[in-house]
Amino acid sequence: MNAHKFVAERGIEEAKRVLSRAPNNATHIAGSMYLKLIGAGWWQAWLQEWNHSSNSMTRAWKGESIELIKKWGDVFNLNELKQVVESLDIIDRLFGLDQAKHTMKIAKEIGYSSDYEQIKQAISDYELVDSFKKSTLVEYLDECEQIVNSWPKWKKESMQNAFGFGGKNKKCEVLDMVDVSPRCEVKNG
Predict the structure, then answer these.
(1) Backbone dihedral region of 184: left (phi > 0), alpha (psi from -120 to 50 degrees) or beta?
(2) DSSP β-bridge partners for residue 62
């Protein structure tokens, strides 16, 4: 999955949170696990471990293979995520997509090529995030069902019991609709 889809699905604030909490040298994230690419197919994960000398939990980079990483979920490049966040901030500072397009046109006309390229990239990123948001609810639910169906039986039952809808005749009801703003923020309404 790419950074644009991450922002479309999880929102700009979540992307900023992920970036702000990233440890030094982290290059990617999978689920809630920060990763550092160290070679073809090999990663290091930022993991908690017990430090016997200090008698406390610490974090350290530990080696893992790509096969283990894949089990944690989609892997996102933090540099790409940072680029998308910066682009959406540019669009926001320019008061939205329409104004950004107008500003880009002016920048090109007066010869500000670096501003033109930066705004052009921001518009491209914004539109790509927006295109991911336009996937239908049915597509999203199908994707969720595929993920859940890949889980082992014990995990499915555990999740069903945890959320109180275990059993064959129980139904889930949608109580609230969620809207996503142009800045990719999830808002209840």
Answers:
(1) left
(2) 45
